[in-house]
Every structure is written in structure tokens, then in C-alpha cells.
Amino acid sequence: MDSVDRWRYGISITSLVIIFSAVVYMGDKDYVAKPMGIGSDTLGPDSDETFSEYHQRAVSTVATALEEHPHDHAYGLVCFNQQLSAPDAAATVAKLQRINGLQIGGYPIVGIPAPVNIGLAQHFVQQAELKQLDSNDIRCVVAHDEPTQFSALQSDPRVASIEVLPPDAAWGRFSVKPVLGAHHDAP
């Protein structure tokens, strides 16, 4: 073996070691398939809270949001006094900028995409049908808007409570606990 062949052999062995090391190193860096942790923000009542207690806490979150960041968009949970049909729920929350999720029946919140070329009521019906749920049993929505809009909605007689998260909360990084008693124990 001459000196050129030795160099080629050395370079190829070194390259293989580098490639193998890179594969082993990158194999441990799986950011896509591993589930990301949920942040500490939560919407909905605590497990030991009555709906009346939850309502009081929710009202205070809207007041805090209005005081601290009235024009910063935030996520909020809007719960109704009773189960609403898709058209009634859509009419109630029509002024909110974006609806991100629905609580239908006693089921957890289901995320929904933005409506495309259809009205909000029809979109709610479509999303309920896709999930095989009753579109006449909408109990809450998760929405994204300014605290001023959530505050204005508090006076609607169909709304039982509105809870608002801080503006740094991101969709998919907070949990939403189902509100089961909104139409039974409303203040």
C-alpha cells in the first residue's frame, strides 16, 4: 500500500467514524415524535371547585386581563348557561375573533380548524358531525381574542362564565378541563 492509499484509507475510516457518531447523536434528538409537555396554564374548574366558585374565579381572570393587557389577544373559555344548538352557540360567540375548540356534551374540548367559505353555525355542525357528536349540545367554546371582547360577552344572558388565560399561553400548550355543571349550577 502506497502513501496515497494510506491517506484514502485513513480519510474513509475517519469519515465513517464521524458519520456514525453523528447518527448516534442525532438519533437521541427526537423533537417531533415525542409528546411535548403541557404548560401550567389551565382553563376550566378545579376538581374540588363548585361551578359558583369557578365562576367567581373566572370573572377575576377577565378583570385581571382587562387591567394588565386589555389589547393583547388571549385564549378564553366561554361556557354557556345551558346546552346550545350550533346556530345559538355561533350567534353567541360570533363577535369573537377565532374559535379554537368546542365542548360538546360531556366530552373534552375538541379542537376545530378555522371555517372556510361557510358560516360559523354550519362550521360548528360540520365539526360536531365529524366527531360524531350532537351539534345541539354545545356547552363551551375556547376562543382567542382581546380581553375587551370577552368582557363584553359576559353580559350575554346565554353565557354562564368566561375564563381568560394570560396572553403568553399558546394553543396546544395549555389544558382545558371540561365544565360539566355550567347549565346546572349557574350563578
Automatic annotation (TrEMBL):
<feature type="transmembrane region" description="Helical">
    <location>
        <begin position="6"/>
        <end position="26"/>
    </location>
</feature>
<keyword id="KW-0472">Membrane</keyword>
<keyword id="KW-0812">Transmembrane</keyword>
<protein>
    <recommendedName>
        <fullName>Secreted protein</fullName>
    </recommendedName>
</protein>
<keyword id="KW-1133">Transmembrane helix</keyword>
